[in-house]
Design a protein that fits this description.
By secondary structure, the protein is α/β, with parallel strands linked by helices. It folds into three domains: 70-230, Substrate Binding Domain Of Dnak, Chain:A, Domain 2 (Up-down Bundle); 242-391, Rossmann fold; 401-627, Rossmann fold (3-Layer(aba) Sandwich), CATH 3.40.50. The protein has 26 helices and 16 strands. The strands form four sheets. The chain has a six-stranded parallel sheet, with helices on both faces. A six-stranded parallel sheet has the order 13-12-11-14-15-16, with helices on both faces. Strands 1-2 form a two-stranded antiparallel ribbon. Helix 19 (452-463) links the parallel strand 11 (436-440) and strand 12 (466-471). The chain starts with 8 loop residues before the first helix and ends with a helix. The structure holds iron/sulfur cluster (SF4) and Broken Fe4S4 cluster. Broken Fe4S4 cluster (MSK) is lined by residues 257, 292-293, 309-310, 331, 442-443, 472-473, 513-514, 550-551, 553-554. Iron/sulfur cluster binds next to loops.
Length: 645
């Protein structure tokens, strides 16, 4: 299937259009740019200006000018990537916390505290009193405490207490319980500066600690504060892929990561005055859709359809039907600026942290969020008459999906408000109806066939009774091929299908954006503390998988999943393959320390094999019944249908 570029028919159709029009995309540029194998494999050090020092592997005793060994160089490079990824997610979380504080003080018009139940739950995690206090008073304390997590110098992050007791103790024993978010990230940059920490294992242990500032720090706070301000997601239906663009409406795409502006754009686009304005320009309405994780944020809470994942961002503009692409931070290709000039699309940057030469900049600030959102929507509407109808090409591909599974909802769906818990899920795993669970997350990578790795892994895992949780661009990939539709239960193994029928879910569950991988940590923690599956996350028959990883954030996520005790497999290629000692340290070394390991495996089918073998190994260690694919499947709707016929 596909041409090696993508398995998505919508992408293939748009790539033909691009080729006909002589337009370059990441799909074509990747062929022109052969990566430097030395840098790609972790063997290039450019930390000081005596280098860059390139380790070629030709001399077993080779070092950099300063004497740094290939292992030290690769460990430093990996640690720096993890720090950058943790910084990106955590800075996102910081902005959310600052806005929550402004909301509590009445200084952020247009925002509100939407989910008081979640506010109380978060206050509980942070040790903040709720009785007899207004939601604003509680929110102010929650925001202040959250903000303190970045600047804290000593002690440990408050959210570590949400992990199983055993895990917390292990982190303390190993000295990797993070003291403060900024502190660990800065310290990793310091330690990896020229002439500093030069023991690979020691560098990598700090990398574990740094990654935890993301998963159990900035990202988890970003998720929670998003839920407090915009609502905790619950299941909803929507559509996905480029076919969601409309040829008779003003198409606005939100792209990037933070929900702060996109939430306001959702409100502005629904404003009757704006819709009337769009009609005055000849459009039938305003159609909002998303790309990357901003898409996931507004999908999870409003059902706004994702137009695609990371590698769809350029293809969306090439449809010629996008009036404005509104971007904030992360995963936004610089190429969009030049590309948008070839069409009528306005590329609008909005973050004070991210400008792109050639783009229009309308700076967002939370004090005037709604008026700014309206200005952006109005700018898109004004651009509608400039659409060149002869160049509009919207591929006719879209799929149905169900999204919106917060961990709160997953708890609720297993027993309702009266007795919701993780007991049914744990029981199903213990009985072997569900063999285990996997998080399949992360990006697209132009050096891998778009969506092929993600969908291969998902297809094979559900067939083998593994429940799959998805986030980020992996979730969008899953959705594009129907994996998030309940009908997909037909392709699940018999035991998993029974559970899907009983609970009314698809075998693949969309839990949100990249920062919402923190929801997966919470789920894993709840499973470990529910009983029957050990006492720590590392006891669970679960695996983390990122088949098409691309950016530093993915490495940070993978590492905090490992530090939480989970075996984690990444596809594409290894960024440290040129340093066998480092590869061993992040596999065997980390497994001995934290019970999880990070492995790079380019072949998706081998990822599946390794996942199933690991799940079975964990099941055996827990002394659970051996998994038998044919034990179940006699109950459920099918049997009932048989009774009534
Ligand atoms: Fe070369 Fe050492 Fe400088 Fe790195 S720190 S560039 S290995 S001299
Ligand atoms: S957007 S980080 S390409 S998942 Fe979160 Fe997608 Fe990866 Fe960006």
């Amino acid at each position: 299937m596909g041409n090696g570029k993508s398995i998505d028919p919508a992408a293939l159709e748009m790539l033909e259009v691009a080729e006909k029009e002589g337009i370059s995309t990441a799909f074509s540029r990747v062929d022109r740019l052969k990566p430097c194998p030395i840098g790609r494999h972790g063997n290039c050090c450019s930390i000081c200006f005596m280098g860059p020092c390139r380790m070629t592997g030709k001399d077993p005793n080779e070092t950099g000018v300063c004497g740094a060994t290939p292992s030290t160089i690769a460990a430093r490079n990996l640690a720096r990537s993890i720090a950058a990824g943790a910084a990106a997610h955590s800075d996102h979380g910081r902005d959310m916390a600052l806005v929550l504080r402004a909301v509590a003080k009445g200084e952020a018009k247009g925002y509100k505290i939407k989910d008081v139940k979640k506010l109380h739950a978060v206050a509980g995690y942070l040790g903040i009193r709720v009785d007899g206090r207004t939601k604003e008073e509680i929110a102010l304390d929650v925001a202040e405490k959250a903000i303190s997590q970045w600047g804290q110098q000593e002690g440990e992050l408050a959210y570590l207490s949400r992990a199983p007791k055993k895990r917390q103790e292990l982190w303390r024993k190993l000295g990797i319980a993070p003291r403060g978010i900024d502190r660990e990230i800065v310290e990793t940059l310091h330690r990896t500066h020229e002439g500093n920490d030069q023991d690979p294992e020691h560098i990598l242990t700090q990398a574990l600690r740094t990654s935890l500032t993301d998963g159990w720090g900035g990202a988890m706070l970003a998720t929670d504060i998003g839920d407090i301000m915009f609502g905790t997601p619950s299941p909803l239906t929507s559509k996905v892929n480029l076919g969601v663009l409309k040829d008779d409406e003003v198409n606005i795409l939100v792209h990037g990561h933070e929900p702060l502006l996109s939430e306001m754009i959702v409100a502005a686009a629904q404003d009757p005055e704006m819709i009337e304005y769009a009609k005055s320009k000849g459009a039938n309405g305003i159609n909002l859709a998303g790309i990357c994780c901003t898409a996931n944020e507004v999908l999870m809470r409003h059902g706004v359809p994702p137009a695609g994942n990371f590698l769809h961002q350029e293809l969306a503009i090439i449809t010629g039907a996008v009036e404005a692409m509104v971007v904030d931070v992360q995963c936004v290709m610089q190429a969009l600026a030049e590309l948008s000039k070839k069409f009528h699309t306005k590329l609008i940057t909005t973050s004070a942290k991210a400008k792109i030469t050639g783009a229009m900049h309308i700076q967002f600030n939370h004090h005037d969020a709604l008026p700014i959102a309206k200005l952006i929507v109005r700018t898109a509407i004004d651009n509608y008459p400039n659409r060149d109808r002869s160049r509009v090409h919207i591929p006719d591909f879209q799929e149905n999906l169900v999204a919106g599974y917060s961990h709160e909802y997953i708890n609720y769906m297993q027993g309702g408000a009266y007795r919701g818990s993780f007991r049914p899920l744990n029981d199903a795993i213990m009985q072997g109806r569900i063999r285990g669970a996997a998080g399949v997350v992360g990006c697209n990578n132009a050096r891998a066939t778009q969506d092929e790795g993600i969908t291969t892994v998902i297809r094979e895992l559900i067939k083998n009774d593994v429940l799959v949780l998805v986030t980020g661009c992996g979730a969008t990939a899953a959705a594009k091929y129907g994996y998030l539709a309940p009908e997909m239960m037909e392709n699940a193994g018999k035991g998993l299908k029974e559970i899907c029928e009983a609970v009314g879910i698809a075998p693949v569950i969309h839990v949100g954006s990249c920062v919402d991988n923190s929801r997966i940590l919470t789920i894993a923690s709840q499973m470990a503390t529910e009983g029957g599956l050990g006492e720590d996350i590392s006891d669970l028959p679960v695996v983390g998988i990122c088949p098409e990883w691309m950016c530093e954030k993915a490495l940070a996520i993978g590492t905090y999943v490992v530090a939480s005790g989970i075996y984690t497999l990444f596809g594409v290629d290894s960024p440290v393959i040129g340093a066998p000692e480092v590869e061993k340290l992040i596999m065997d070394g980390w497994e001995a320390q934290v019970g999880g390991k990070l492995e790079f495996e380019p072949d998706p089918m081998k990822i599946v094999e390794k996942t199933l073998a690991h799940i079975d190994k964990k099941r055996a260690a827990l002394k659970l019944e051996e998994y038998d694919p044919n034990r179940y499947g006699q109950s459920g709707d099918k049997q009932m249908a048989g009774v009534s016929s």
